[in-house]
Design goal:
Elements: H1 72-77, E1 82-83, E2 85-94, E3 102-106, E4 112-121, E5 127-131, E6 138-142, H2 145-148, E7 166-167, E8 171-172, E9 175-181, H3 190-193, E10 197-206, H4 209-220, E11 238-239, H5 248-254, E12 257-262, E13 266-272, E14 279-281, H6 289-293, E15 295-299, E16 315-326, E17 331-336, E18 361-365, E19 373-375, E20 388-393, E21 401-404, E22 416-419, E23 425-431, E24 436-440, H7 441-448
Antiparallel strand pairs: 1-13, 2-10, 3-9, 4-7, 4-8, 4-10, 5-6, 5-9, 11-19, 12-13, 12-15, 13-14, 14-17, 15-16, 16-17, 18-19, 18-22, 20-21, 21-24, 22-23, 23-24
Length: about 450
């Protein structure tokens, strides 16, 4: 697996802060304990998101703006969510006559396991838990008597006409244990005979390292059709925590950026916009509220130490409602459930004016679904810092984008492109191609400002 909560196969990136300016250490107000020693939903102090550190003015000089490629349409139409898992068909019925009945779903080497119930009808007081074997991560699904009559329990049913059932929240690691907890024993199986039951019909599980390498190779093969790698030169994206002392403001901003696990097997990145319950990602990642219902939003999925192995236990919430979306500007504004759990991670704000060429930027992101990283250094830019290459670059429409050579990868779609001068978002990353590009946030802001 890529990285687990306690032990991982590969190290987090080494400490190489190319071109980063040194700043004094600041206290991280939401520093979490390493996974296994702290639970979800810690009551910690919120981040302040509007106090940028002083920085020197970025030089206007830089590489000449890259020419627009011919036939860009087919290239960007190939963009989609990053595939990071597979669906497995199962047929597993938990014995409703037995208190504490369990089923274990194990896929050696998988990064995560996520179960889907197609039958989940229980009596009041009964509930199901989905947990890792050590029970360091436990998700509970309670009974709902109002839904027993309708034959389906749960507050998150799938859309009408799309089948019945519901996904449970994933557990990190290669094994999930599903347990039925009974409020009242029923050794004779009367309730089971009456039609009550808990059944798992499919499991989404993360790719093993070998499977992910194959998927990455297939993705790279798309370059033959004009789609290019998004790592420009050497990959200089670093673990977010590597910037904790070198650029504490950038590190703090990265906490507002979340990993999106969509439909159990696909990834993008999203981020909190403003102090209310608002998240932003790409339209090619999420279009409808049903997409949001089936999306896990992971906050604080970051390495605990630069170059280390452990990651913080992610705070996971469900997506909720799509408020606005647009293909040409490739954005989707949505909300999350249990918003109070993620308020402590702070938020980002918008820079409503178009940036100038040469303006220095950085991108907090989850490339390939990895723990949070920041792309700031660049061997393609003068001074070694990512900078705007063309403030009027073509995306889905003419002059809709801002281009840059910051390193990104599959799964980075939906990341914020942030000005180093103001620490405000200037673009919404969505395309690779070297230069890579993001939709101008001033254009998006004009569409969504009444919803913020």
């Amino acid at each position: 697996m890529r990285r687990t909560l306690a032990l991982v196969a590969g190290a987090c990136t080494a400490v190489v802060l190319a071109g980063a300016t040194a700043y004094a250490m600041t206290t991280d107000p939401i520093e979490a304990q390493p996974a296994g020693s702290a639970g979800l939903g810690r009551a910690e102090a919120p981040l302040e998101a509007d106090a940028p550190a002083a920085r020197a003015e970025a030089p206007a000089a830089g590489p000449a703006a890259a020419p627009r490629k011919e036939g860009i349409g087919p290239v960007i139409d190939a963009v989609g969510r990053q595939q990071v898992g597979a669906l497995e068909s199962v047929d597993s019925l938990l014995d409703y006559r037995t208190e504490g009945a369990t089923q274990t779903f194990s896929y050696p080497g998988a990064e995560y396991v996520k179960v889907h119930f197609n039958e989940l009808t229980m009596l009041p007081g009964d509930y199901v838990t989905v947990a890792d074997p050590a029970r360091t991560e436990v998700h509970r699904i309670d009974s709902d008597p109002l839904d027993v009559v309708g034959g389906l329990l749960g507050s998150r049913p799938e859309a009408a006409g799309e089948g019945v059932g519901r996904w449970a929240m994933s557990v990190t690691g290669d094994t999930a244990v599903v347990t039925l907890h009974r409020a009242v024993p029923d050794p004779l199986g009367v309730q089971e005979a009456a039609g009550l039951g808990v059944r798992v019909d499919k499991v989404a599980r993360g790719f093993t390292d070998t499977e992910q390498e194959r998927a990455d190779e297939a993705d790279r093969a798309l370059t033959e059709n004009g789609r290019e790698e998004s790592v420009c030169g050497s990959n200089e994206a670093r673990d977010a925590v590597c910037y904790k002392s070198a650029d504490p403001t950038a590190y703090k901003k990265s906490k507002a950026v979340a990993r999106l696990l969509i439909n159990g097997t696909e990834l993008c990145t999203g981020w909190r916009l403003g102090s209310t319950n608002r998240m932003l990602t790409n339209n090619h990642c999420m279009v409808t509220s049903r997409d949001a219902y089936d999306t896990e939003v992971w906050f604080d999925y970051q390495c605990t130490k630069c170059g280390g192995h452990a990651v913080f236990k992610a705070t996971k919430v469900w997506g909720d409602k799509v408020l606005s979306t647009n293909r040409d500007l490739d954005y989707t504004l949505f909300t999350v459930e249990n918003f109070a759990q993620v308020q402590k991670f702070g938020y980002l704000t918008i820079e409503p004016t178009r940036p100038s060429r040469g303006s220095e930027v950085y991108i907090p992101q989850h490339p390939g679904g990895d723990p949070g990283m920041i792309a700031m250094g660049s061997d393609k830019d003068n001074g070694g810092i990512c900078a705007v290459n063309d403030p009027a670059y073509d995306g889905y429409t003419t002059d809709s984008d801002v281009s840059y050579y910051c390193d990104t990868a599959g799964g980075s779609s939906g990341s914020p492109v942030i000005s180093r001068k103001t620490d405000r978002v200037i673009a919404l990353h969505h395309f690779g191609g070297c230069p890579n590009s993001g939709v101008r946030i001033d254009l998006i802001y004009n569409r969504i400002k009444k919803l913020l």
